[in-house]
């Protein structure tokens, strides 16, 4: 039978793709869009869920244990308030807590920002110059060994009762881990990579940007995360010494009147501020650290497997 004898069979064979053939090409020829890959939004949601589920479940379990302990041991509210009483206190006083949290939050951010600028710069100088390393490292260790609560009264005498002593206290507490981790990160660059870069005629800046900085970023961000938590401690320590506003002042006022629910509310506000600052640093690490991006791609691959 010739092709001219059976045109209907020819049209049927042309419109039907072969089994095991190029289905996407057949779909394009038939006017149908190819199947879209798995959406990235679902993968991101899985990663976020895996990251948030353990701490949220742990926090929920701690709240349940706390509430049960208050019921079982019949603890008076002026000693250990229940989570419900703390939640009611936060709901009733949230404008006051928010006002004081704004003051403390500004002190934390300013102290942390100053620690980042000074700490990273000093860490780089300690790597570049051995004289700066030998001269500054013992002073940094000595300064870290001195309790900052003992330095805060001196800062109050020098700078008064404004926010400056609190900012400087937060700076003094947070700068040490940044300096140490920055210097350690830059020193971790393999010497062979530096020699290779120089042998290829790369400038000092090119070597720094291509080899030293990417290698040091994980260590630098580790120091920033530690400093983010410590800056909260420093700011509140300064407020404990002398202040008329801020969460530290609110905690002192509540404790002087045996208002345990108010103290717990202030502590929770401080915890939220610390977590927000820590989360901001971790977000910056995810955006700028090459190793963090590779880890995220690996997590996404595992999640979709």
Description:
This protein has 305 residues and is mainly alpha-helical. The chain has two domains: 40-75; 82-304, Orthogonal Bundle (MetI-like fold). It is 81% helix and 0% strand. The protein has twelve helices and no strands. It has helices spanning 7-15, 23-29, 40-72, 83-128, 130-145, 148-159, 164-187, 191-199, 204-241, 247-256, 260-288, 290-304. The protein is globular, with a radius of gyration of 30 Å.
Strand content: under 5%
Mean pLDDT, as a whole number?
A: 82
Which regions have little confidence, pLDDT < 50, spanning 5+ residues? 1-5, 7-24
Major sheet description = none
CATH architecture of the largest domain: Orthogonal Bundle
Radius of gyration: 30 Å
Helix share, percent = over 70%
The CATH homology group name of the largest domain:
MetI-like
Task: Compute the number of strand runs.
Answer: 0
Overall structural domain count: 2
Shape: globular
CATH topology-level fold name of the largest domain: MetI-like fold
Structural class: mainly alpha
In short:
By secondary structure, this protein is mostly helical. It has helices at residues 7-15, 23-29, 40-72, 83-128, 130-145, 148-159, 164-187, 191-199, 204-241, 247-256, 260-288, 290-304. The chain has two domains: 40-75; 82-304, MetI-like fold, CATH 1.10.3720.10.
């Amino acid at each position: 039978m010739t092709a001219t004898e059976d045109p209907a069979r020819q049209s049927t064979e042309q419109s039907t793709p072969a089994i095991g053939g190029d289905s996407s090409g057949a779909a394009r020829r038939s006017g149908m869009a190819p199947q879209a890959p798995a959406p990235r939004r679902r993968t991101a949601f899985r990663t976020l869920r895996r990251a948030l589920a353990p701490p949220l479940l742990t926090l929920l379990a701690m709240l349940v244990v706390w509430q049960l302990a208050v019921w079982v041991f019949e603890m008076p509210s002026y000693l250990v308030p229940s989570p419900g009483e703390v939640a009611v206190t936060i709901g009733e006083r949230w404008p006051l807590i928010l006002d004081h949290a704004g003051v403390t939050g500004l002190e934390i951010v300013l102290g942390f920002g100053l620690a980042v600028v000074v700490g990273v710069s000093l860490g780089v100088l300690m790597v570049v110059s051995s004289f700066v390393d030998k001269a500054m490292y013992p002073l940094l260790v000595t300064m870290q060994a001195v309790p900052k609560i003992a330095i805060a009264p001196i800062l109050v005498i020098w700078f008064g009762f404004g926010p400056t002593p609190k900012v400087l206290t937060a700076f003094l507490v947070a700068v040490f881990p940044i300096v140490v981790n920055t210097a350690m990160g830059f020193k971790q660059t393999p010497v062979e990579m530096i020699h290779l870069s120089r042998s290829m005629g790369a400038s000092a800046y090119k070597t720094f940007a291509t080899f030293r900085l990417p290698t040091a970023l994980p260590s630098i961000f580790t120091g920033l995360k530690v400093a983010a938590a410590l800056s909260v401690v420093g700011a509140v320590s300064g407020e404990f010494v002398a202040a008329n506003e801020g969460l530290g002042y609110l905690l002192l006022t509540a404790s002087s009147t045996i208002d345990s629910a108010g103290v717990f509310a202030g502590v929770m506000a401080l915890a939220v501020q610390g977590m927000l600052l820590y989360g901001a640093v971790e977000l910056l690490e995810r955006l700028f650290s090459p190793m963090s991006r590779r880890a995220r791609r690996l997590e996404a691959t595992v999640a979709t497997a």
